Amino acid sequence: MNPFWSMSTSSARKRPETEEKVLVGELKNSPPRTAPKKQLPSIPKNAVPLTKSASPALSAQSTNGTHASYGPFYLEYSLLAEFTLVVKQKLPGVYVQPSYQSALMWFGVIFIRHGLYQDGVFKFTVYIPDNYPDGDCPRLVFDLPIFHPLVDPVSGELDVKRAFAKWRRNHNHIWQILMYARRVFYKIDTTSPLNPEAAVLYEKDIQLFKSKVVDSVKLCSSRLFDPPKIEDPYAISFSPWNPAIHDEAREKMLNQKKKAEEQQSKNMQVSGLSWVKPGSVQPFSKEEKTLPT
């Protein structure tokens, strides 16, 4: 039995004798029960959280409300639900993977396919508060600072609070942060920038801005094969193309895609009789064949 959900009989409150007599009288007048009454498990006093904090600063944050009562269980459920939503959204060019060490830390990468940042491959890390979803907005930090008005040129952190000034539980979700992180590379916003130089160049000298963006994309590409900044088995890493390893995987993916397209084509084919024969009003008709005489 899970120790977090087991109840100790010794921890039950002892009723006064008068209360016990009343209960006994009630039991005599009531029909016998075939099964014991279901009760919610008590909250363990010394429950150990199932997830480690991503940083000492996060573990120092206070917890309130429902999370304070069922902390580890509610947090694990919330993060699992969030990751399920991310998978269902199928955000184009965005991939994420929760950390092995802590569910409060997700590794990700964004592929930019067109626009000013075309061919950009930007790795990032999402840091989730330990009192999620009752706390502040999760943070998104790129592994390398990108030349962008909304990205801090030193830390590489994206200005997420611009879009999520106040994080509202059951309304805001992590997939929305990922979608926002992808969108900022296609729709440039220069108001209240974290990188004033990038904002000024975008407004006053677009050619120089494009030149610096190209340099930033090339820098990220040149560092793509570097080891992950955080040592974790689930951290996203890239390796150069190796035909002995990758050709087989590529063929499998292409075959799966081909089979899916063929199945979709079969499902779209309509078999059976036509609804109305051309030149006729007779339904469910088919062409008449002339028998040889």
TrEMBL record:
One matching Pfam family: UQ_con
Cellular component, GO, one term: FHF complex
Membrane topology label: Peripheral membrane protein
Region called Disordered, residue ranges: 1-47, 251-293
Protein keywords: Apoptosis, Cell membrane, Cytoplasm, Membrane, Protein transport, Transport
Record's subcellular location: Cell membrane; Cytoplasm
Domain of life of the organism encoding this protein: Eukaryota
Domain UBC core: 74-222
Listed GO biological process terms: apoptotic process; early endosome to late endosome transport; endosome organization; endosome to lysosome transport; lysosome organization; protein localization to perinuclear region of cytoplasm; protein transport
Biased segments, Polar residues type: 1-11
Sequence ranges of Basic and acidic residues compositional bias: 14-23, 251-264
PANTHER family associated with the record: UBIQUITIN-CONJUGATING ENZYME E2
Protein name: AKT interacting protein
Protein source organism: Salvator merianae
Lineage, opening ranks: Eukaryota, Metazoa, Chordata, Craniata, Vertebrata
